[in-house]
Design brief:
alpha+beta, Arc Repressor Mutant, subunit A, Dna Ligase, domain 1, two-stranded antiparallel ribbon, 5 helices
Length: about 130
């Protein structure tokens, strides 16, 4: 039974890497089940949570939305499209906000999440088309 779980973990992790688009758990489930229909939704959710807890994947908590997952685990920021819900990487240097905050607040910062919100290029185009119509 342990080997089966290891195989399922490998399948879910490789799917997350292959998708490389910050998918939600439901999107990973759909992708996994398109090739491996016997892998259950609960199994994919459990494995994604374990990958995030172990640091093998990054959980991106979206304000008022479903969590997304990232196969890239190095420190970086994300932007969330307020219209379609896509998540993308933000290419900018990661500052040590935690140490800056602890200097002023007295808190020992254990982690933080920074989310930018905006409109993705596709939604911007759709907005322009709708405005022109």
């Amino acid at each position: 039974m342990q080997e089966r779980n290891t195989l399922q973990k490998r399948i879910v992790h490789e799917t997350l890497i292959r998708m490389c688009n910050h998918p939600t758990a439901d999107e990973v489930v759909a992708e996994v089940q398109s090739t491996y229909p016997t892998i259950s939704r609960a199994t994919v959710y459990r494995i994604l949570n374990k990958l995030a807890d172990s640091g093998e994947a990054l959980r991106i908590r979206i304000n008022n939305g479903a969590d997304h997952f990232d196969h890239q685990t190095f420190p970086h920021y994300h932007v969330h499209c307020s219209s379609c819900g896509k998540v993308a990487d933000v290419t900018m240097p990661v500052k040590e906000l935690g140490s800056m905050l602890s200097d002023t607040s007295g808190y020992k910062i254990l982690g933080y999440s920074l989310q930018f919100d905006g409109l993705c290029p596709e939604c911007q185009k759709n907005e322009e088309i709708e405005a022109g119509a």
